[in-house]
Amino acid sequence: MNVHLEVESHVSSVLILYGTGEGQTAKIADRIATVIGERGHETTAIDVRDRPDSVALEAYDAVVVGASIHVGEHQSAVREFVAANRDALSAVPTAFYQVSLSSANEEKRAEAAGYVESFIAETGWHPDRIGQFGGALRFSEYGFLKRLMMKRIAKDLLADERDPSGDVEFTDWDAVDAFAADVAAFVEGRLGVAPDATDGPGP
């Protein structure tokens, strides 16, 4: 007797919870939500500071956590949330993405990786997938002193544009898309669900 095992096709729900300083981590969260959503899954992106009390990790099939680096540290709200919900996160497929200027600088990639290792050590959480992306500089929003400070910090990245007047983005969006697709595929494999084929090309 031939037994045909069919992958169950149903929508899974993915929570994308993030902390952001100047908005780039939120922008990346929205992009991840879009890519995963295009595969037929339900996605919800929420700033950790704005999450309603009713948000329960148990209500989601998978969770993606995002945080950015400011003055060498991730947002405390993200670290505290992950540490407090470590057991719930460990029960579902998860991913973590980090946003920093270090990730955009070839010579500082090891430094960026060190921030991830510190986050894992501090929270005790081991995500299934990890992504690291370059951030952005919002010169249009900075005051005079902060603009000078950020130009000094990012002088290597700004070699081709010594006096930027507007925002400068260092995020590799192709890498973000690839990360989101990989996370979606991992979730589908773990849950035994198939992506929604109705969004693909017709016969």
UniProtKB/TrEMBL annotation:
Pfam name, any one: Flavodoxin_5
Name under which the protein is recorded: Protoporphyrinogen oxidase
InterPro entries (alphabetical): Flavodoxin/NO_synth, Flavodoxin_CS, Flavodoxin_dom, Flavoprotein-like_sf, Protoporphyrinogen_IX_DH
GO biological process, one term: heme biosynthetic process
Domain Flavodoxin-like: 14-178
One Gene Ontology molecular-function label: menaquinone-dependent protoporphyrinogen oxidase activity
Signal peptide residue numbers: none
Superkingdom, taxonomy of origin: Archaea
